[in-house]
Design goal:
Length: about 170
């Protein structure tokens, strides 16, 4: 009986690996491409220090899909004088390719945002959309670039969303 369970687990693991590999495989047209997405997000909020916040956060996200289909990412964010840059390698980024789309979810202490990038069939142009939300009845809670934790007090506004694709590695010097 124990041998049957081990074989069943091995078969399920193999199937999941094959299916997962097929779903996550980057289309040939996507390889060795850089994708740039920029947008502005405003979430009116009250800070943990009692301050209020209604300044737009300017965000620029750059992704490189390598010749092996691995995704590298850089996020540049700016609010007023505060700015932050984070880079992530394959396996660290939450962006996943599926067909002609790349989708990622960025969790917050309460709530999340989902970035969806849709490509034309040749992966030479793209459109992007950002959805920001929280569980029904709960406010979004996020960490500001100034280190404070903020709790949403008004509606989220996303504006100025743009997307572009270029050949080659945007991170190469």
């Amino acid at each position: 009986m124990a041998g049957w369970k081990i074989r069943k687990l091995t078969v399920l693991t193999t199937v999941a690996t094959v299916i997962g590999g097929a779903v996550d495989a980057a289309p040939q047209q996507a390889l060795n491409k850089s994708v740039r997405v920029s947008f502005s997000v405003t979430i009116p909020a009250r800070g943990s220090d009692g301050s209020t916040q209604a300044n737009p956060r300017a965000v620029s996200r750059t992704f490189y899909i390598s010749s092996q289909g691995r995704v590298f990412a850089r996020a540049d964010r700016r609010v007023g004088r505060n700015q932050q840059t984070k880079e992530k390698g394959p396996g660290e980024t939450n962006m996943r390719l599926s067909g002609n789309s790349m989708v990622g979810v960025m969790p917050m202490p309460s709530g999340a945002s989902q970035l969806t990038i849709d490509f034309d069939p040749s992966f030479s142009s793209c459109t992007a959309r950002l959805i920001v939300g929280a569980e029904r009845g709960k406010p979004i809670v996020y960490k500001g670039l100034d280190g404070n934790t903020y709790t949403q007090t008004g509606p989220v506004q996303v504006s100025g969303v743009s997307c572009s694709v270029s050949a080659g590695n945007a991170f190469a010097s």
